[in-house]
């Protein structure tokens, strides 16, 4: 698409982008700019406004700079803005934004687009210790950046930098499960009046705190992943079969377990009932839970889903400061605790893998520590021996 508006002023759009651009001449210099719109009428209006603005600068004696210095940092901030405006907004976008702000922008600070080279990207990856997941997410961030630069006519697709083929990744470290004594302390703290009825907290924070103990219990009872996997559970995902309740998991890490079903214990169901009573002010029975108007189960009464991991981090930090516990847990510890508990109860590894959406290999490789906690294995290892003293 190309449309001449007047001599020396035209708007155009290339095949690879929806945005419309303007090209015009002023004081003998050619200016090209993105108009940040795909609407034709809006683009025409903005093109004229930009032309008049530059002509006004000439009359005022201001110097016209035909080419702006584009930096990687500016481009990253533009990509962040695009991610924030995406509908529907996915939790993964928060992870991308975090990587841009915490790693990519600091590394490429003050570097021009011309310095976004294959060599510099290799140096970026060489300076990080990445899990396989973080490696993939970083590459996705750069891909977003490349396509933004192409759309803004700052980088041609044929000139996209290459990713290193030998990016090293660290072995995934499994998290820790809760110690019984500290798990009890966490429950008591999150259910205490001092925490729930703390002065000077707003009604949103208060509601999140009242919901959290039930979120915590639900995770401990199911092994479901925090974040996208849990937050996207809807009332319509709940089903009942032969007196047992199930939940369909539609989001999150479902590559090998697409839309898997997880069984819900009675305690897990009771947690969902308690959450619904808080957020919807409904008096529910177990079976009535299946008739609740569809929506996200973990959404508050004001239609927001808390960052439960962040809230739990605050709880753990406060408890450590008060010397109530010593271990720095994450909310993912609920999942580790669930899997370890099922293994100790003799549940088949394949069944556990199906329930939590892991591969059998992951369960075998990362949860073998539970074998040393199994009473029959303890007896086998210590039978007929005196306790060893060190």
Instruction: Specify the overall morphology.
Output: elongated
**Secondary structural class:** alpha+beta
The amount of beta strand, in percent, is: 5-15%
Give the count of helical stretches: 15
Rounded Rg: 28 Å
CATH topology name of the largest domain: hpI Integrase, Chain A
Order of helices and strands: EEEEHHHHHHHHHEEEHHHHHH
Could you provide a short overview of the structure?
This protein is 47% helix and 9% strand.
Can you tell me about this structure?
47% of the residues lie in helices and 9% in strands. The chain is of the alpha+beta class and 390 residues long. It folds into three domains: 2-59, no CATH class; 72-159; 180-375, Orthogonal Bundle (hpI Integrase, Chain A). It has a four-stranded antiparallel beta sheet with strand order 1-2-3-4, with helices on one face. Strand 2 (9-12) and strand 3 (21-26) form a beta hairpin. The longest helix is centred in the first third of the chain and has 20 residues, at 40-59. It is elongated and about 90 Å long. 21% of the residues are buried. Residues 185-380 form the Tyr recombinase domain. GO terms for molecular function: DNA binding. It holds the Pfam family Phage_integrase.
Write a concise keyword list for the protein shown above:
single chain, 390 residues, 7 strands, 3 domains, alpha+beta, hpI Integrase, Chain A
Helix/strand layout:
Elements: E1 2-6, E2 9-12, E3 21-26, E4 29-34, H1 40-59, H2 72-85, H3 91-108, H4 118-126, H5 132-151, H6 180-190, H7 193-196, H8 203-222, H9 228-231, E5 238-241, E6 244-248, E7 261-264, H10 266-280, H11 308-321, H12 333-344, H13 349-356, H14 360-366, H15 375-382
Antiparallel strand pairs: 1-2, 2-3, 3-4, 5-6, 6-7
Helix pairs in contact: 2-3, 2-5, 3-5, 8-10, 8-12, 13-14
